[in-house]
Amino acid sequence: MTAAVEEVLGLGDDALIAAQRLAEWCARAPEMEEDVALTNIALDQLGAARMLLSYAGELEGAGRDEDALAYLRGDREFRNVLLAELPNGDFAVTMAKLLFLAAYQRNRYQQLMQSTDDRLAGIAATAVKESAYHLDHASLWTVRLGDGTEESRRRMQSAVDMVWPYTYELFDGNDLRDGWLAVVEPVLAEATLTRPEEGGWAPRGGRTGLHTEHLSYLLAEMQVLHRAHPGAAW
Amino acid sequence: MTSSYAYEVAARVMDPELRVVTIAELGILREVVADRDRAVVTITPTYSGCPAMDVIRADVTSALRNAGWDTVEVVTRLRPPWTTDWIAESGQAKLAAAGIAPAGPVSLGMPGRRAPAPACPRCGSAQTEQVSRFGSTACKSLWRCGRCREPFEHVKAI
Prior knowledge:
Chain A is mainly α. Chain A is built from 9 helices and no strands. Chain B is of the alpha/beta class. Chain B has helices at 3-11, 52-66, 89-97, 106-109; strands at residues 29-34, 38-43, 71-76, 100-101, 128-132, 140-145, 151-155.
């Protein structure tokens, strides 16, 4: 049985938009090692996005390849979760986003390794190990910043509070939230941080193409070159 | 023009980034099936976004064309996924000789486990510390030797 186009697009778009956001740190990160780390994580995400979008294009059967899907869709056609498209904010916000997204992706890829769709299972088997490294990186920083100075703690707590509402959407259509909480809550606890209570504001819409205004600006930058020179190749 | 000769030709292709080891030693080359006219090479990518894979595909294709095959096809196989456990011992030794600490066993090295610090490939000291989990490429981390003071890269277990 093969996976649904929408499902594969969702996974691919999560990775593509996450990659694009992380790439914005290139030459701007707080220190050189972190510049290298964030761009390497972005590259891992981009690699997974390419495999997933190529597959989605094949499943769709309308002749769209990875480039057509990445560069020529409008925001209403993107299927990423809103969490991925949020602006990077300060470094703490970027780490909160990465912690929550990587914990979700790792568990999701782990689940997909059992998929009856061989191709998707194969992509997941490669990506799951990279997600483990992303999660580890974000966890280390969350703890360091949370259990750090007054300033770092204030920023990290504010980041967690700001990003938390966007995490509910990650679990629409799957049963992975409990497993995710089991990963994320101990990290927050070790970082001496609190998390918002259940049942708060829960923005959604990404999986059906209803995005925040942030995605439009991101796509404008990501797509402008390809749209100016359609079909161009190196 | 047999499969085994085709395999030998493909196996000699060097990794474009870690130029001291071949794609066979890295475990990237999985299988070659060939007859007189056509060679089909199966490779497994290392990391999802590894930019060296396109170069490897091109290098494998030209190596086999130069060896006489008209039609060369490079196929990507994702399962089982690539792991550093597939790196041959000769490959590990060549990496170390080039100043890159080879990967330890995956059973010890993945995040969350207590991996022993790699020994310095220059002076052999165990007194090493990690500078960055991510190095110049997706597959390596950056370390520093406490004894000889030289930085070195380490292939991450994955």
